[in-house]
Amino acid sequence: AMRVNQDTVLRGKKVTLVPYTAAHVPRYHEWMQSEELQRLTASEPLSLEQEYEMQRSWRDDADKCTFIVLDSGRWPGQAEEDSMVGDVNLFLTNSEDPSVGEIEIMIAEPSCRGRGFGKEATLLMLAYGVRKLGITKFEAKIGLENEASICMFKKLHFKEVAVNSVFQEVTLRLDVSDQERGWLLEQTNHVEEKSYAELRQPAGVLDS
């Protein structure tokens, strides 16, 4: 099962990625009441109970890898729930080809958009997919109206490969050549990988 990241924290400059746990569900559920986010993520609103079930399936499914995006300026230090800004996901969608991953990024907190949070979170996830999951081909499917996201993926070397007028979405793709791999690792060489169990310890526990 995709428990590969259950103790993984990826700490960047602006964002820190942590595993999606039950503790994150209430805030996540609150975000997903937003009609704008439902539209941008093409998702239906779920009940809180369904959202908890969804979180469990994310944790246990072998073909999904997800991180909650926290604001590095706030966490550690503040409560995780107060530091959450979005999430980033990888789906292993092609059973014939495990080297293909579909990536999704959502910066749900409006005040955190347009500040480079999404870009760094995506870079961290791409590098993680390459290093840990053996992914060499990434795809992103984005609603045509979501110009900011399309533009960001293009800056990260994704190329547009298809437009679906029925679903009103564009598919972008990144093939990770040696050159792209080098670039990705260079872009993320500041990232520290840490243990989630250790970082979650309440302050003071380690000092005693």
From TrEMBL:
Q: Per its UniProt entry, which superkingdom is the organism in?
A: Eukaryota
Q: Which GO terms of the molecular function aspect are on file? A: tubulin N-terminal-methionine acetyltransferase activity
Q: Which InterPro entries match?
A: Acyl_CoA_acyltransferase, GNAT_dom, NAT9-like
Q: Supply the PROSITE patterns for this chain.
A: GNAT (PS51186)
Q: Domain N-acetyltransferase: where?
A: 35-198
Arranged from A to Z, the UniProt key words for this protein are:
Acyltransferase, Transferase
Q: Does the UniProt entry include the keyword Transferase?
A: yes
Assigned EC number: 2.3.1.308
> Its catalytic activity?
N-terminal L-methionyl-[tubulin] + acetyl-CoA = N-terminal N(alpha)-acetyl-L-methionyl-[tubulin] + CoA + H(+)
PANTHER family per the record? ALPHA_BETA-TUBULIN-N-ACETYLTRANSFERASE 9, N-ACETYLTRANSFERASE 9
Q: What does the sequence similarity comment in the record state about its family? A: Belongs to the acetyltransferase family. GNAT subfamily.
Function summary? N-acetyltransferase that mediates the acetylation of the N-terminal residues of alpha- and beta-tubulin.
State what protein this is by name.
Alpha/beta-tubulin-N-acetyltransferase 9
